[in-house]
Design goal:
about 450 residues, alpha+beta, Glycosyltransferase, 3-stranded antiparallel sheet, 19 strands, about 40% helix, globular
Length: about 450
């Protein structure tokens, strides 16, 4: 009944004719699998080696060792089962690290309605002034809780107890705007940073259009264990826009920025290949595959304009550029122009793309693994003091980043693991609330 109502409300969006191909997990050639192992191990070491030894909090980036991003923390939680399964860390050590982080979050004063401040002080677990905002963030908390649930399903015991408690505490309804069709707000900020239980205000931005972040938020909200705090699926699945655009032969529901990570974050955790189309008609895995292929083709077609881009250098996404943090994107996107593109490329873009376009993405990763700009390598191995790929590079500007971001290493690691084994998504979907919630949202499991 619910799915039928949605289909009456929404025309079927972009077709999947040009997004065909095999589905994950894939059977990689041994040489390709070895490369993915090396990349994954380097990313994993970031979360373990840079974690605070007492609080278990994980950093936003290498250059700010005292600053925790709770989004990076969520990727780090989900990284721990990968490390155990691959023999990179002992089960007990990984479980203890997860537990330290969860206990710190459990006692953090920088939370409201179960949602956490975007940035935390790694030593105290309270808010940090080092981040660009001190507000409580819906998307960053969503990424944190998704990773926590993965860790809870894997380790069980107190890890699961705290992860489930944190999820149950989240009042999704409190984060919606009744004057704007119950869309979820992005950020709430307290008037007094020392009193997150006191008065405060929501910023104007809402999750009102498609990104994979919107998808993650609404599905987690619909899946909330407490019905009193849960989002209404008939509203939450229909109150955001789904614009359709095209680049070359690739037609898909596109995001506002047109940058690659906005097509991937939900699917670090959710596996839509085991379900039929969304109740509104989209096949989200194939939609992201089309976006990945459009990104690849855009870079190849603009190689004459930007020296960075080429056959094996693609995957435009957010990250550090020569002049600071940037969110580049290409058409289709909101507006008539490309989001400012200066020729910078972040290797984790191709790393995430392995989940959708394995052959071309692995070829790109192999190329960038051995690439340098004016003698500075894009990759530094763990043995040489790095964590694999640096965050970005720009050939035209003769620049390579000297920093590593948790929200780059994390999604690359999770997407690669899901492409290889499906481990992260399998653990995530094994949670009762998640399994029930995706059905409540109108997704029908495939036979």
């Amino acid at each position: 009944m619910l799915a039928g109502l949605y289909m009456l409300l929404f025309a079927h969006p972009a077709g999947a004719d040009h997004a065909a191909g095999p589905l994950p997990p894939y059977n990689f050639h041994p040489e390709d699998d070895a490369l993915l192992e090396e990349i994954s191990y380097a990313s994993f070491r970031y979360f373990v080696d840079e974690a605070h030894p007492e609080t278990g909090l994980m950093p936003d980036k290498v250059s700010e060792p005292g600053l925790c991003s709770i989004a990076a923390q969520g990727f780090g939680f989900a990284a721990l089962p990968i490390g155990v399964e691959r023999g990179w860390i002992e089960h007990e050590e990984a479980e203890e690290l997860a537990l330290r982080g969860l206990r710190t979050l459990q006692g953090s004063p920088a939370q409201r309605w179960g949602f956490f401040a975007h940035y935390l002080d790694m030593e105290t677990g309270n808010y940090s002034l080092l981040g660009y905002e001190q507000g409580v963030s819906s998307i960053d908390t969503a990424l944190m809780i998704a990773g926590a649930l993965v860790a809870g399903q894997y380790f069980g015991g107190e890890v699961k107890e705290i992860a489930d408690e944190l999820y149950a505490n989240m009042d999704w309804k409190a984060f919606t705007n009744p004057d704007n069709n119950d869309q979820v707000y992005m950020v709430w900020t307290p008037d007094d940073l020392d009193d997150y239980e006191g008065p405060g205000y929501f910023g104007p931005p809402h999750w009102g259009h498609y990104t994979d972040e919107t998808l993650l938020i609404v599905l987690l909200g619909i899946s909330a264990p407490d019905p009193e705090k849960r989002l209404d699926p008939e509203v939450a699945m229909t109150n955001w826009r789904r614009p359709i655009g095209r680049y070359g032969e690739h037609e898909f529901v596109h995001t506002g920025p047109g940058t690659l990570f906005t097509y991937t974050f939900a699917q670090c955790f959710y596996d839509f290949t085991g379900y039929g189309p969304a109740p509104t008609g989209e096949e989200w895995f194939l939609n992201s595959r089309a976006a990945v292929r459009a990104n690849r083709d855009w870079c190849r077609n603009h190689a004459g304009q930007f020296a960075t881009y080429g056959t094996h250098r693609w995957g435009i996404t957010a990250g550090f550029g020569p002049d600071g943090y940037i969110v580049p994107g290409h058409q289709p996107r909101h507006g008539d122009a490309d989001n400012p593109i200066d020729g910078t490329l972040a290797p984790y873009g191709a790393g995430m793309a392995v989940l959708w376009e394995p052959e071309d993405a692995v070829a790109a990763l192999r190329h960038m693994r051995h690439f340098d700009v004016d003698g500075k390598p894009v990759w530094t191995s763990v043995e040489d003091g790095g964590y694999g790929f640096w965050d970005g590079f720009n050939v035209d500007r003769q620049w390579v980043a000297d920093d590593v971001l948790g929200i780059a290493q994390g999604p690359m690691l999770l997407c690669i693991e899901n492409a290889r084994t499906g481990l992260v998504s399998r653990l995530f979907h094994s949670h009762t609330a998640i399994a029930e919630g995706i059905k409540r949202a109108g997704f029908e499991p495939l036979p």
